[in-house]
Amino acid sequence: MNTVNQERVMETIDQHLAMIQFNTEREVVSVNELFAETVGYKKEDMLGMDHQQLCFDGFAKSTEYDRFWQDLRTGKSFQDKIERKTKRGERVWLEATYMPLKDDEGAVVGVVKVATDITKRQNQVTRVVEDLKEMSGVLNERAKQGIKRSDDINEKVHQVASVYQDNEATLTSLQQQTESIQGIVQTIRKIASQTNLLALNAAIEAARAGEHGRGFEVVAQEVRKLASGVEESIVEIRQKIEGITGEMNQMVESTSGVKENVERAQANIQTATSDFQDVLSSSEALAKQATEVMTII
């Protein structure tokens, strides 16, 4: 009864798992139908085949390959996801276990390999990982573009700030000059008042001088006219200066607002740049994790 059960177990394994057996020289000594189909051969064509024929050159001709077989010959088993080559040279992925076969004395006389074809799953994983890498690349590129644009905007804001500082200095200078002009106007006004007063005194003296003071009176009248004209001009100039001063004060208030806006813009740009840097770091981490997924699965 146990023998029958054991046979059925082996039958079931043979139907569902790809199996192949090698001697210590790496030659195929037996293979089941499922394994032969997986790699695209007929069973009879695989007998005597060297294990290297099922591997790509990059692995078959490496020191890693030599160490792999050396470990098997010394009795060490191996289990992992492996990449193998079909008869048509296509890539096939297997979840495989290599188990050394020993004789009664414990010497390794061969190797049995049991495998499951995971090519479809691996291809799906590869596509997902490639999509992740592509997304990471897009994020990376967008983040770099965002950083560049932020830097460009920041440069323009610095230029605006520089212009603002120049304008602020100019406005300060204009204010000082306007105040100086107002001082000059006040001085001229005083002189005009004194001139007018002198003209009045001259007119009084001319009246006292009678006939001999007529010419002096004419001069006094002209001086009064001139003083009066100067006074009118001073009033007009003063009004214009007051208008200019008012406009300049508005400009000062306006530029103060510009300064605040520039400072806020610079702060926002720094925040945006920091956010883009975070996106860049995240995209790089995503690419790294995608690569790690490929090695783990």
Characterise the protein shown here:
There is one protein chain. The chain has 297 residues and is α+β, with helices and mostly antiparallel strands. The protein has two domains: 2-117, PAS domain (Beta-Lactamase, 2-Layer Sandwich), CATH 3.30.450.20; 127-296, Helix Hairpins (Orthogonal Bundle), CATH 1.10.287.950. Helices cover 72% and strands 13% of the residues. The chain has seven helices and five strands; from the N terminus they run αββααααβββαα. The chain has a five-stranded antiparallel sheet with strand order 2-1-5-4-3, with helices on both faces. β4 (91-102) and β5 (108-117) form a beta hairpin. α6 (119-209) runs antiparallel to α7. It is rod-shaped, with a radius of gyration of 50 Å. The two termini are 41 Å apart. The mean pLDDT is 79.
Task: Determine the mean pLDDT.
Answer: 79
Q: Care to count the β-strands?
A: 5
Helical percentage? over 70%
CATH class of the largest domain: Mainly Alpha
Task: Specify the CATH homologous superfamily of the largest domain.
Answer: Methyl-accepting chemotaxis protein
Number of domains: 2
What is the CATH fold-level name of the largest domain? Helix Hairpins
Strand order of the largest sheet: 2-1-5-4-3
Structural class: alpha+beta
From the spread of the alpha carbons, the general shape counts as rod-shaped
Low-confidence stretches: none
Protein name: Methyl-accepting chemotaxis sensory transducer with Pas/Pac sensor
Domain Methyl-accepting transducer: 117-297
Domain PAC: 76-130
Keywords: Transducer
